[in-house]
Amino acid sequence: MKTPVTELSEEMAADEMQRLSIIIKEANKNYHTKDAPTMSDAQYDELKQRNNSLEKNFPDLKLPTSPSNEIGGPLMGGFSKIEHSVKMLSLGNAFDKNDVIDFDERVRKFLKLSPDDDLEFTAEPKIDGLSLSLMYRSGRLVYAATRGDGEMGENVTENARVINSIPEVLIGAPEILEVRGEVFMSHQDFSELNRVNITKELKTFSNPRNAAAGSLRQLDHNITKERPLEFMAYAWGELSSPIGDTYFDTVKFLERLGFSVSPLMVKCDNVNMLLEHYYEIEQARVTLGYDIDGVVYKVNSLGYQKRLGFRSTTPRWAIAHKFPAELAWTKLEAIEVQVGRTGALSPVARLQPVTVGGVVVSNATLHNEDYILGQDSKGNILRNGVDIRVGDLVQVYRAGDVIPKISNVDLTKRTFRSVPYVFPLTCPSCGSSAIRDEGDAVRRCIGTTKCPAQKIEKLKHFVSRSAFDIDGLGAKQVEAFFYDNVLPIKELRDIFTLEERDQQSVSKLKNRDRWGEKSTEKLFNSINNKRNINLQKFIFSLGMRHIGEQVSGLLAKHYKSWDNFFVSVVAASNYNDVAFENLNAIDGIGGIMVKSLIDTFGNSTHSLNIQELAAELIIKDAEVTTNKNSKIGGKLIVFTGALETMSRAEAKSKAEEMGAKVSSAISKKTDILVAGLGGGSKNLKAISLGIEVIDEKAWVMLISME
Length: 706
Known about the structure:
With about 700 residues, the chain is of the alpha+beta class. The protein folds into six domains: about 5-70, Helix Hairpins (Orthogonal Bundle); about 85-320, 2-Layer Sandwich (D-amino Acid Aminotransferase, Chain A, domain 1); about 325-415, CATH 2.40.50.140; about 450-530, DNA polymerase, domain 1; about 535-620, 5' to 3' exonuclease, C-terminal subdomain (DNA polymerase, domain 1, Orthogonal Bundle), CATH 1.10.150; about 635-705, BRCT domain (Rossmann fold, 3-Layer(aba) Sandwich). Strands 2-11-10-3-9 form a five-stranded mixed sheet. Helix 23 (about 650-655) links the parallel strand 21 and strand 22 (about 660-665). The two termini are about 35 Å apart.
């Protein structure tokens, strides 16, 4: 929990400003310069708001290099620079109704207008793209520049010329006209670009904004030409003569010149009308076909705008009312039920794609059948008891690393054709009955060994990074091999007999599409290199219900060897009292875990398959020694993000060997956060709590010094 700004001492406030300055400037560089943001809009806005609050409460401590004085980010190399004759400023932000009311009151106070005096605003969607300035002289495009740092932008003229919605020639324009707007990419074109890049094994983009920015800032304009970019005008800079008396009329003039402008721009007479239009646009954003992240309000009178003028980085006459970054409305197109490796039937919402928290979301979890009905597994009401149906307009929620979920339904948009969703009572994969045990939140397929979905998911888990981590055998390859008629992988053991079967087969893997000799050899080598595995990982890799990494470690440390573990658990499954009591007495192993082990090893088919798998491997005995006197002995460590030099499981295991405790959640008790790539919200929380944050390089050095 952050200390409220009003409770900070001057010394604490100064330290906080320094810290925030570093984080915000790095975020600006990643977003504006590299087109590769490392945090969500919500996280960024939270940092900016706290910095602004600090500067408001401690004005004498404001840094000369404060991020509140800056616009955009530093310019990247490769492009020549163009100085803006009129600064390209950013907009102040509003996050709720009170912020909009404050904006109205500030404008009226500055202009000496009473609450009853007429004051007209415009409201229009805020496109989430890359700002661009187009300079026309005598009706011809002479240059195009990005916003850059607000004073100096990058010369992207040749790239702008290949965007179809940017006119080369204007008829009826003043001698000098600088048109400003946003370059963006539609949802459909974004999806197609990523699809093509995947087939070509090229970089994919996380959202349309990054795709548009990366496309416009290509050093080779031929690449930009291949990208489907669009431009929408909403402002102007330098003018040789006026082109309107109001903002609304001036934008309409730009439309008559041939520029695309927002069809959702309206005039509003008061705050209530602004807010009404905000809510209308928020729900309509799913139908636009491109990303918007808020609604921009502007004083309509250009005379008033001139009187209001500017602050250092923002105009006084405009503000951007941002949508909640983790929330978005979209259409629920279908509900599909997936079957997991433990047989759980999990409903998934297929959504019309929408950007939430900087990521394009097309799926969301629906948890279970109770959640769809509008209640939890105990019968408590959720969403005021409103159920979820196909065709609904739904609100999607995503925060940090949390899987997207549906938080609300707009009943006013539900049609009379809408029908309640009926959850299946049979497995959609194998047709077996799907039973819900008392006290269980989910319904499970009882098909087990004959259910294709369960077998595929077990295989995917087995080859995953936290288990065997077999390079070249990912989820797609597993699924393809499962249904292969010549070299099928149906059981775990089949992975390690693949090369032998390939040698005996007339139809060689190397002769198939997308394989070839090198990739086939690489796959076989990768499989063979994984024949040696420690006991903890092997137990975890089997994918038994309730037997995660930590429980696998407890079992490995207790039984020490695979032979001892296998014989003991099979004996416990066969009602051997001593073996059962021994298993049940392990500290940290509960009844549900014991039942899962017995269900697995007490099943003759499962047990035989596991024996055959083990025969293909060298399963190393567990190492139970720990170094409690190491530099991290007794410390609580959290890992976040993707590690490059080792798997997360290996890093956790190493930490525990050295006497540390490992947790998945940040708290005040955490001593060290090891931050890999894409650490996200945990990084920010650790910094706010004053927890030591180290990168993977520092972690490797730390553990290698012992």
